[in-house]
Amino acid sequence: MEELEKEELQTRVLNAIKSRNAKELKEIFDTVPNIDIAEAVEEVDDVASLLYIFRVVDNEYSAEFFAELPSEQQEKIINAFTDKELIELINNSFADDIVDTLEEMPANVVSRVLKVCPKDMRKDVNTLLNFKENTAGSVMTTEYIEMRENTSVKDAIATIREKGRDAETVYTIFVRDAKRTLVGTVDLDELIFAKEDEKLEDIMNRDFVTCSVNDDQEEVANMFKRYDLNAMAVVNTENKIVGIITIDDVVDIIVEEANEDIARLNAVSSMDEPYLKTPIFKLVLKCAPWILVLMVLQVFSAMILSRFEDSIGQFAILAVFTPLIMDAGGNSGGQTTTMIVRSLSLEEFDKKDYFKVIWKEFRVAAIIGGLVSLFAFGWLMLEMSVGIISTESVIERATAMGANPYAYMSLVAALVAMTLFVTMIISRLVGCSLPFLAKLVHLDPAVVCGPITTTLVDIISLITYFLLWTQIIGPVLGF
Amino acid sequence: MEELEKEELQTRVLNAIKSRNAKELKEIFDTVPNIDIAEAVEEVDDVASLLYIFRVVDNEYSAEFFAELPSEQQEKIINAFTDKELIELINNSFADDIVDTLEEMPANVVSRVLKVCPKDMRKDVNTLLNFKENTAGSVMTTEYIEMRENTSVKDAIATIREKGRDAETVYTIFVRDAKRTLVGTVDLDELIFAKEDEKLEDIMNRDFVTCSVNDDQEEVANMFKRYDLNAMAVVNTENKIVGIITIDDVVDIIVEEANEDIARLNAVSSMDEPYLKTPIFKLVLKCAPWILVLMVLQVFSAMILSRFEDSIGQFAILAVFTPLIMDAGGNSGGQTTTMIVRSLSLEEFDKKDYFKVIWKEFRVAAIIGGLVSLFAFGWLMLEMSVGIISTESVIERATAMGANPYAYMSLVAALVAMTLFVTMIISRLVGCSLPFLAKLVHLDPAVVCGPITTTLVDIISLITYFLLWTQIIGPVLGF
């Protein structure tokens, strides 16, 4: 929605509530998506107005609308509801939405809701509340339609008509045999296309896929993407269905997992709420620890640099190029890490592909190293000869030794170029190896790789630079 | 699928093809998802075997299976197909899948396919081929079900039974009035729940949302996420429907857009094919230009450093801390850029929220700056006093001036701490402003921000460092 439309809608909604105009409010709920209305009432905080909305709108909207509200408003409403109203809300809600709501509520609200919950629902909610975060169990719901394989199409449609409204989706029907084992799925459209007297076993898909409650939600999302699913069964070890996951939840998972990769690769803790709603101190907590850890890791490069204080003191231009070398190494290692971490997340390859990857990276790195060092040599010669980078110390030295300053400059440029060649290769090999290593020891590749790659590459490139200086170029220049 | 299962399936499929065992192959297609079979035959490159598969499997699988094959295999198959076989494949395919295939084919293949295409389909395919990449038009399909608002539920279901197989989805029915204007949508489940003699206008959702052909696919994906949609109508300026987008395409868009953000924030061009399938020279092209551009930008920090060669020559420990300062600034700016770019992508806020964001960032930065500079002071004192970082030049100077070396060390640590405080604030302000600026001039925030933030922050922090040195700390130490 455009900014203007948003403001118009907000005025309209707030006016309807303020003037207690039930007809207008009903009309709004009929023609505007629930989430847009929820955003429009974001700043309404008197309980009477919030309750008014729920007393006016139809049941078919109220539960969905409730699910879209921020948790502070939800809490107020639950506290103000009579038991009867609360039960009605619960009956119109899906178990997974109730669980999402309760996860944000204080204990007394949770226990009141569970107390008024109908028995079946309470059991489902309790079960769902206990699954570990980010597992298939924690995102599944328990309201699905399951039928026997010998059900006729006609009976199946009748059952859907009767019970479908309580299910999270009727677009996928799960088919079980006499032992309650999941044997197939039927899409609703197949049911519509089929003849009335056919049996589900005649039309069901037998090439369905499933997951189990403890599977990582990221794996589940990858399966939805791979197989273009609308819904997937979550099964126990005996292949009996215990819940289902639907595509709308998967869309959220995909965004969440991508955000996590993005955040971690860039040394921020991932955001679990929108930026503008995140309190200042939480933002500090998400950022500061990384900066501090990375600073502690920087001790290594400072240590190495300080060991070569003498060389720097004698020939200060050496210090001018260290940031360039360290940055190039960090950027290059970061590129590889990014590609590999993302491919591992999307399950494009697995641990066993490591040798394929490292051989590919080696070849890529050799080419890039060649290009970069050639370019750097030319570029630095240009910068130094036109004086963009001042070369006092080089000219001084050359004069003192009675040599041509350009010859000295070209040796300095060659030193940088050689270091860059080595750095490009090492950074990519380190950058592609660490994510695999992390995966091998069951750590999140994204979280450990960025900082460690940079630190390792920094150390190696600085040592290379100063070794090439003290062993080869320095002596040539008479140091 | 586990590695082992994959290999087993591959052996089974290849054996069935090799021994021309039609029964086994049919059984495989009945019980295994198409994409898994497509992967299993990845290395089959003799045309006879590929054609054999298509001659054996049922029509209901063949088009979907074809869509999952890599384009080299698709090309071989199209070239080997008779016109009759090709027409059959086209008739069983959706227009958007045909377009996806054709986009990867050489011109002669495209023209042959278009020639045998039935007239209606040819028109649709041509239209779709002409939409700009990444727009709603380029991802929509033209096969949807549209009905008049006065259609009865009974007739609607009959129509779906008759024509539904040709539509990309029957889960959302689009409802139009006499002027062909889109007036509502009906979900298939609502149709099933409704009474046979009700009219679509009685049960349709009037709170539907739409997009237009030129909308960015990222916006479309955000709408699907926001409104939990299964399908959305793409309309022209007169609100007449011209195509639809379905959730399975949106899942791919979300992953694609997240990959793009991740890649750009980390200075890689985004990958349009899986890593292992990307040729070496393409990987070089994706990485090398960034490294070269960033190196050219590094000229600024080298320039500044070289202007202070004198200071460095006199007091080499100054060079020891420059990487630390530049890294901290780069990391901190990167954190902010990451959060803001991602929030802008997900449309969590808009341009008008800039002042809210910058005020928030300023407060966060002040706190982090305080923490980081305090920590850095203590940490550097520790490092220097235990000798992890060697302090020859400091001790030499202190001795020469007859001062306490620890007093000198603490002044150096204070210099770094003060610089860090300034750097933390500037880096976050720059890091949050640039994405907004990019958006204002219609550039992709992710692509311009990373490198420019780092360069700007590098320059500002180096200047701060050396100004504090030459103006305040240096004179105190007698330089």
Account of the protein in words:
- The structure is a homodimer.
- With about 475 residues, chain A is mainly alpha-helical.
- Chain A folds into 3 domains: about 5-130, MgtE N-terminal fold, CATH 1.25.60; about 145-255, CBS-domain, CATH 3.10.580; about 300-475, Orthogonal Bundle (Tetracycline Repressor, domain 2).
- Helices cover about 70% and strands about 5% of the residues of chain A.
- Chain A contains 24 helices and 6 strands.
- Chain A has helices at about 5-20, 20-30, 35-40, 45-55, 60-70, 70-80, 85-90, 95-100, 105-115, 120-130, 135-140, 155-165, 190-195, 200-205, 215-225, 245-265, 280-295, 300-305, 310-315, 315-345, 355-385, 390-400, 405-440, 445-475, and strands at about 145-150, 170-175, 180-185, 210, 230-235, 240-245.
- In chain A, the strands form 2 sheets. A 3-stranded mixed sheet of chain A has the order 1-2-3.
- In chain A, helix 3 crosses helix 5 and helix 23 runs antiparallel to helix 24.
- The relative contact order of chain A is 0.06.
- The model of chain A has no long low-confidence stretch (mean pLDDT about 90).
- At the A-B interface, helix 2, helix 12, helix 13, helix 15 and helix 16 of A face helix 2, helix 12, helix 13, helix 15 and helix 16 of B.
